[in-house]
Amino acid sequence: MDATPASDFARIIALARAHLEQVQVAEKDYSPKRAILRLTAHYGRYRVFITEIVSRTQGQYRYYVLDGDVVVAGFDNAADARALRLKYGRQRKKHVGELIPHLHLKNKTQLELTEEMTCAAFLAWLQANVPAGV
Known about the structure:
Strand order of the largest sheet: 1-2-3-4-5-6-7
Oligomer: single chain
Shape: flat
Structural class: alpha+beta
Order of helices and strands: HEEEEEHEEH
């Protein structure tokens, strides 16, 4: 049986509640063309933002960790101009609009290409790389 956005979102919410504190569903919306889930939470002193957008043709995600207003880490698969340049160099214009998995670090001053990320992998990365202590 194929998963639906509703079942996927329920799984993501349960994962977030198991690993994070003060989980709030900021938005959960379904339409025939796309489904969207936005969560906010805390991990120790850090704020965590999780966004999943599912359409008929693709899925997008944003997983961000902030210390105050400073981005500690942000995984996403957006059509980011810097990620396109890093991946394709001079050929980047041929790929405009393509979703590129990448990681923002040091308040978005560093960018690294990554493999696709899932919410479960992000939460594992968070626990392994960001100390939860206050």
